[in-house]
Amino acid sequence: MSFRKRGDVLGAPGARRLPVGGQIPGRSLGPQRTPVTSNDAQLADRVGKLSMRDVSNSKTTGQIDSAHPGIRPSPATSQPSTATGCQDLDKLLGHMGLPLGQTLLVQEQSATDFASVLVKNFAAQGIVHNRKGGPSSLAAGNTHLVVLTMNPFFAKELPGVYQGSKKEAKRFKVSSAESEVTVQNMLESGAAVSKPSAAPGKDLKIAWRYGLKDNLQKGALARNGDVELETYPEYSHTFDITSRLVPAPTSAEITLISPVQPLSAVLTQLQAVFQKHQKKLIRILLPQFLHPVMYPPKYSKLAELLPLLHGIRSVVKQNAGRAVLLASISSDLYAHNGNQVLTMIENLFDSVIDLEPFPQEMSQFLERVYKSQPNKIQHGLVHVLKLPLLSDRGEMHVQRSEYAFKNGRKKFEIEAWGIPVDDSEVQDSKNMAEKPTEDHNHTKVALEF
Amino acid sequence: MSAVQKQELSLFSDHSVLTKALFQQNEHHVIYVTHKLGTSPSWLMNALIETQVFGSPLSLNESHASAVNHASSRVPVQRSGFSSNGRRKAATIASWIHDSEFFHTALGKLKIDPASYQIQDYLTDFVLKNHGKPASRVLKSLVEELTSTQSQSDLLLLEQPELLMHLLNVSSDELHLDFINPLARAVPLMVIVSYTESHENPGAEALEHLAHDLIEQIRFQTGCVFKSIAVLGIKPLATGRAKDVTGTLTITRGGAETSHLAIDIAENEYLFHTQKDTTKLFYR
Amino acid sequence: MASSSHNPSILLRRVLALKENSPFILVIDSIGRSGHCVLDEVAREAEESTTIIYVSFETVRKPKYATHFVGGCKSATRLLTAIQSSLPSPEQSKFSASKYLVVIDCVNFIAASSVVELITQLASPSVTLLAIYHKDLPEYRLPELENYPSSLQLLRFMAPSILEVRPFTNDLAAEQDLESRLQKLEMPLGLNSSIYKLILTNRRKSGRALTYTFKCDSQVHSFVPIQDVRTTSDGQEDSEMFEGLTTFNLNTSHKQKAAKDQVDLPFLEAQSFNTGGAIVYEFEKDDDYDEEDPYEDPF
After folding, report:
1. How many CB atoms are located within 10 Å of the residue A191 CB?
2. What is the pLDDT of residues B175-193, one digit of tens each?
3. Strands A143-148 and A281-289, how do they pair?
4. Would residue A320 count as lying in a domain?
5. How close B238 gets to chain A, by Cα (Å)?
6. Number of domains in chain A
7. Is residue A38 predicted with pLDDT exceeding 50?
8. Is position A49 within any domain?
9. Which end of chain A, C or N, has fewer beta carbons within 10 A?
10. Comparing B168 with C245, which gets the higher pLDDT?
11. CA angle at residue C89 from C86 to C95, to 5 degrees?
């Protein structure tokens, strides 16, 4: 196998993976990547009695290039999954990504727009995957983005890959130039690939990005995350929301469809994308669904919006091997009447998370508590309502107020939520018990929340 | 976990899941399954189909591995009448929320032969095919489609037919009269599965003003309760997520008269735990 | 008639046997206890010769007692012709002695605007109409009929006999708990059981209504009147409450109680208010009312 790969460009992900792991076939050439029959038995073993049906599933995913950089098997179900562009969200979903053929709805309470960060990262991640195939594949590509929006500038607003702080960025430029030289040399010498030491040069690009540079050189790859990085180096990226993706995606990479058209027009256009971009992963985005600026009032009728979602769901499921969908909605607008509209919408999605930004008092409380560590301040709660695949087969995954999110320049982080201890409060109660300050009241409100 | 007493699922007082009395000549019954956010009913639907195929829900309460091991030794129950030519199906599933692949995968894991059931996939392209057409005609053709395939099986599972109200823009009454009723009268046993998360009914005597959509939804779902001989409700624990319990399954009598049946509904409340494609039931 | 009104059980049996002079019987039920149990009782009590026309909006299988089984439809006029084809013409009915019973298993399907017409067309001395109304089905009201009464109000108004079935609960708390669960369609155990509560409201010719509550068992077909629990228990509580409290006798004898109840207090109107006390003031011609004086405002 390594012989066959030797001719490949060193930058191609498949080639890079080879020198790393010892147990190559099982790992990097997972069943979803190469549906070779002999692999099936192995797979069934490893995955733990998957059904015949599951294996045959890989037939449909086979449409995609088996070495797609943005696809890896889910550790939970071994279903092929793709990165959402936010590592913590990938983790939260339980599959290290969004499994193909699944749909995700991000609800957001109040008028904030944190969900747009997830949406943009999701979009940018698709474009970055697409460009990882090398310049030659830019036209052909491995991923296509469909955005159901009326915002014509969507493509221009995508964030670029995080380059580190300015100083680091400069150093990176130098080192990448160096590494390119090394790689070329090695290719010429012809003995490059079999030597493990050849890889690090190219590895730097990514490994460095995650602060792995030193580890790599020491050969210490013990941490699990590192191993995953090794196996799926181009799987997930970090995006800097203050930068822009350059060059902005073109019509070869992104298709914008207005959702406010006759239903059949929307659906046929959507299907046409799948026709046109065979063998590509199609990432569908439905940002700011039912936003009153974009959607006329009649879309609030269930008889109007459910057929649309049902139709989109149908298209995703039809192409379950190579489609994912991410939608976002401002839930406050539709929270009346016993949440009927929202419940019906949630019902048509495989997975749903709900962002609840903190109210003012809570933010103030956190700011006070984390006075010295401003980067620890969370911005809101993440409620999990449904998880892809797992909820559908009957598992209970409703987790309210168990996670919190914080949005930074380079990362949208989701972490376990716990109410921090207010040191000043502790002192207060020690020193002056006689004077119940207003702060006390504040804290209590916050705690209840 | 292992110390917990497992419990067999039974819906009827003769300890069966689907009693034979339901499948007598000219008998028609409806069973209603309700579920809420966090507790998808797929395991229960699978168990019902499995019961039709093998005579009992074999995979319930088993660990996944042993379920698969036993699967090879499972022998489908001989169906009366058509069994010789093998054309009689154990069940027909019509779903408006899942495609056929979903069921093939789930039932395949239970080693149920795809030839023993039939799936009507009303998710794929349903809107594209039917949007804008007169609702009464669509409903009529759906009934024809389902009754024609239905003539070959005893159990018809409808998953979320309430979506039809919005997909075709029909009222609950129309859906009941033109779709549910004719189907129920054509099939020995029909199981309707509904998502009742947003059900909040103040009752007809309440003066609260309800949204039209909510009225229609409540009318449909309440109507289903009145039609059915048994209601199987699954919901998560009121206390939220737990490590070893997914939720509760409550079996109650429905509104339909059962005095003609010699067998009563076995009312019961189970706790259940679903994990990795296996579901275990145990005592509360 | 006079004697039956004093014995609730006999009155109920007469209603169920269709012997009471009421051409329209309304059965109100809920998902907690469906009204089919009443249909069974009626079919059992009624004379053998009664022709039962069963109009089904939701019943899947034809009940044994039904002579004709008519499928329900949305249009009231079509429904009417379908039913009337099984009924005798008015001339015939004058001469025939046999009784007819039309059962509508879910009258909710008929819109409020046409329900009155349906009742008046069907109900007659020889034809009894029995309709089940599910009180948990909310009703959509057309904006143009905003002021028109709801179906339930209309039916209650029209029906000489109303039978309301409820699941049997021991106390008020259990009842409220049950209701709050049913609102969310979370069905508790023990619904639709053979033991249920039946509230009979029977109107006399004058329109005065008598209400009785029964505890019923559909397996042995027994109907036991339930005394008004509140008054009896109240009396007991009173006497217990004062026991050992003081050396005085604070208890009231039954005779005293009866006398107390008969005292007419002034301003009966005020006593009917639900919220505590209120001032009832009637302006008399001699009253000196000064609009300028803020302190004199009697209201």
Report:
1. 11
2. 999 999 999 988 899 999 9
3. parallel
4. yes
5. 12
6. 3
7. no
8. no
9. N
10. B168
11. 115
Sheet with strand A71-73: strands edge to edge: A71-73, A80-82, A98-99
Nearest residue to A358 via CA among A415, A313, A304, A401: A401
Which residues are within 8 A (CB) of A387 and not within 5 positions of it... i.e. 6 or more apart?
A93, A94, A351, A395, A397
CA-nearest residue of chain B to C146? B209
**What is the span of the domain harbouring residue A372?**
86-157+246-418
Whether A338 sits inside 8 A of B167 (CB atoms) is no
Q: What are phi and psi of C191, to 5 degrees?
A: -85, 165
- Give the whole-angstrom CA distance, residue A222 versus residue A240: 28
Q: What is the pTM of this model?
A: 0.78
| Orientation of helix A52-61 relative to helix B100-109, angle to 10° | 140
**Interface test mutation site (partner B, options A344, A395, A399, A402, max chain B beta carbons within 10 A):** A395
Range of weakest confidence among A112-126, B38-52, C264-278: C264-278
Q: In this complex, do B197 and A347 lie within 8 Å of one another by their Cβ atoms? A: yes
A101: tokens are 């053929």
Residues of C in contact with B227 (CB under 8 A): 58-60
Percent of chain C with pLDDT over 70: 77
CB contact under 8 A, A391 and B97: no
Which of residues A236, A271, A290 is at a domain's end? Answer: A236
Task: Give the CATH number of domain C4-226.
Answer: 3.40.50.300
Distance in angstroms (rounded) separating the CA atoms of residues B132 and C280? 62
A264 interfaces chain B, CB cutoff of 8 Å: yes
Identify whether the C-beta of residue B177 lies closer than 8 Å to the C-beta of residue C73.
yes
CB contact under 8 A, C187 and B225: yes
Q: Are residues A144 and A178 in the same domain?
A: no
Please, which residues have CB within 8 angstroms of residue B207's CB and are 6 or more apart in sequence? none
What's B176's DSSP letter? Answer: I
Name chain C contacts of B225, Cβ cutoff 8 Å. 31, 185, 187
Does residue A387 lie in a domain region? yes
Q: Which of B124, B214, B277 sits opposite A340 (nearest CB)?
A: B214
Amino acid found at C170: N
Domain B20-72+87-201+208-275: CATH superfamily is P-loop containing nucleotide triphosphate hydrolases (3.40.50.300)
Distance CA B45, CA A325 (A): 27
Please judge whether B166 and A386 are an interchain contact, meaning their C-beta atoms are less than 8 angstroms apart: no
**Nearest one of C2, C5, C3, C46 to C211, comparing CA atoms:** C5
Q: Which residue of A has its CA nearest to B123?
A: A314
